[in-house]
Amino acid sequence: MERITTAKFLEKKRKGEKITVLTAYDFLTARIVDEAGVDGILVGDSLGMVVLGYSSTIPVTMEEMIHHTKAVVRGRRRALVIFDMPFLSYQTGTRDAVLNAGRALKETGCDAVKIEGGVEIAETIRALVNAGIPVVGHIGLQPQSVNVYGGYKLRGKTEEERKKLLEDARAVEEAGAFAVVLEKVPSELAREITESLSIPTIGIGAGRYCNGQVLVFHDLVGLFEEFKPKFVKRYAELGREAKSAVRKFIEEVKEGKFPDEEHSY
Ligand SMILES: Nc1nc(=O)c2c([nH]1)NC[C@@H]1CN(c3ccc(C(=O)N[C@@H](CCC(=O)O)C(=O)O)cc3)CN21
Ligand SMILES: CC(C)C(=O)C(=O)O
Ligand SMILES: [Mg+2]
C-alpha cells in the first residue's frame, strides 16, 4: 500500500481532490481511520481535553504527545501522521522549536508537525523546514491562545482581522509549510485564503471551500457528547451506544443472564 506523503497533499490540491484528516490519539483509533482511508492522522493536542480531561489544551506536554503519537504510528499503515506541537514547545524560540519537533520525529516516527500561529511564527516554521521537519501551519482560532482571546470565538470577522488572516496565510506558505489548518473563520474568507495559496488549506469550522477538512474523531462519532460547536457534524452516536451497552451488561449480570453457557467454559 502506498504511503501518503506531504507531496501528495500538494498534488491533491492541484488536482482539485479533497483532503481528509481526522485526529487519533491511540493505536486502535489510528487503525480505524487509516483503514477507512483518511489522508492524514492528526495527533491533536486536543487529546488534553478529549482523553486527559483538561479544560483546555494548555497543560499538554511533549511527553504526553510523544506517548500517544507512538501508539498512533503503530496503528498507521497509509496515512500521513501529524504531531501537534503542544503549548510552550515552540513559542520560546527557534532553537527550542527545532529541538522539540526534531524529538517528535525521532522518537515517534511521525511524518510532520503542526504549530499554531501566523506572521509571528513564520521564522520558526522556516527554521523547522530548514532542519528537515515538514510543517503544517494553523491560523484563525488558535486554542493555545485561548487565554489571550478569552474564548473560542469566530476569527476574521472585522476587516482588520480579515487582513491579518490573509497575511498570516501568506507568511505560513512563504515560510515553507506544506499545508495550513484554518480554524473557525467565515466560509468566504476561507475561500479567499484557499484561492490565494498554492499549499492546501485544511478547514475546521471554515466552510466548504477549503482544500480539505479536519475533525476530532471523538466529535465525529458522537463520543465527546458535551462538545458541540456548530462546525461539528455527528456521523454516529457512539457515546449513546456505549452507555446503552454498559447498562445492558449491568442489568444482565444482576439478573444472572450473563455469562450464559455460550460465554462460559
Ligand atoms: N473535542 C474537541 N474538538 C475540537 O475540535 C477541539 C478540541 N476538542 N480541543 C482543542 C480545540 C479547541 N477547539 C474549539 C473549542 C471550542 C470551540 C467553540 O466554538 N466553542 C463554543 C463557542 C465558545 C465561544 O464563543 O467563546 C461553542 O459554540 O461550542 C471551537 C473550537 C477545537 N479543538
Ligand atoms: C482541531 C485540530 C485542528 C487540532 O489542532 C487538534 O485536534 O488539536
Ligand atoms: Mg491542536
TrEMBL record:
<feature type="binding site">
    <location>
        <begin position="45"/>
        <end position="46"/>
    </location>
    <ligand>
        <name>3-methyl-2-oxobutanoate</name>
    </ligand>
</feature>
<comment type="pathway">
    <text>Cofactor biosynthesis; (R)-pantothenate biosynthesis; (R)-pantoate from 3-methyl-2-oxobutanoate: step 1/2.</text>
</comment>
<keyword id="KW-0808">Transferase</keyword>
<dbReference type="InterPro" id="IPR040442">
    <property type="entry name" value="Pyrv_kinase-like_dom_sf"/>
</dbReference>
<keyword id="KW-0460">Magnesium</keyword>
<dbReference type="GO" id="GO:0015940">
    <property type="term" value="P:pantothenate biosynthetic process"/>
</dbReference>
<keyword id="KW-0479">Metal-binding</keyword>
<dbReference type="GO" id="GO:0003864">
    <property type="term" value="F:3-methyl-2-oxobutanoate hydroxymethyltransferase activity"/>
</dbReference>
<feature type="binding site">
    <location>
        <position position="114"/>
    </location>
    <ligand>
        <name>3-methyl-2-oxobutanoate</name>
    </ligand>
</feature>
<comment type="similarity">
    <text>Belongs to the PanB family.</text>
</comment>
<dbReference type="GO" id="GO:0032259">
    <property type="term" value="P:methylation"/>
</dbReference>
<feature type="binding site">
    <location>
        <position position="116"/>
    </location>
    <ligand>
        <name>Mg(2+)</name>
    </ligand>
</feature>
<keyword id="KW-0566">Pantothenate biosynthesis</keyword>
<dbReference type="Pfam" id="PF02548">
    <property type="entry name" value="Pantoate_transf"/>
</dbReference>
<dbReference type="GO" id="GO:0005737">
    <property type="term" value="C:cytoplasm"/>
</dbReference>
<dbReference type="GO" id="GO:0008168">
    <property type="term" value="F:methyltransferase activity"/>
</dbReference>
<keyword id="KW-0963">Cytoplasm</keyword>
<keyword id="KW-0489">Methyltransferase</keyword>
<feature type="binding site">
    <location>
        <position position="84"/>
    </location>
    <ligand>
        <name>Mg(2+)</name>
    </ligand>
</feature>
<comment type="function">
    <text>Catalyzes the reversible reaction in which hydroxymethyl group from 5,10-methylenetetrahydrofolate is transferred onto alpha-ketoisovalerate to form ketopantoate.</text>
</comment>
<dbReference type="InterPro" id="IPR003700">
    <property type="entry name" value="Pantoate_hydroxy_MeTrfase"/>
</dbReference>
<dbReference type="GO" id="GO:0000287">
    <property type="term" value="F:magnesium ion binding"/>
</dbReference>
<feature type="binding site">
    <location>
        <position position="45"/>
    </location>
    <ligand>
        <name>Mg(2+)</name>
    </ligand>
</feature>
<dbReference type="InterPro" id="IPR015813">
    <property type="entry name" value="Pyrv/PenolPyrv_kinase-like_dom"/>
</dbReference>
<comment type="subunit">
    <text>Homodecamer; pentamer of dimers.</text>
</comment>
<feature type="binding site">
    <location>
        <position position="84"/>
    </location>
    <ligand>
        <name>3-methyl-2-oxobutanoate</name>
    </ligand>
</feature>
<protein>
    <recommendedName>
        <fullName>3-methyl-2-oxobutanoate hydroxymethyltransferase</fullName>
        <ecNumber>2.1.2.11</ecNumber>
    </recommendedName>
</protein>
<feature type="active site" description="Proton acceptor">
    <location>
        <position position="183"/>
    </location>
</feature>
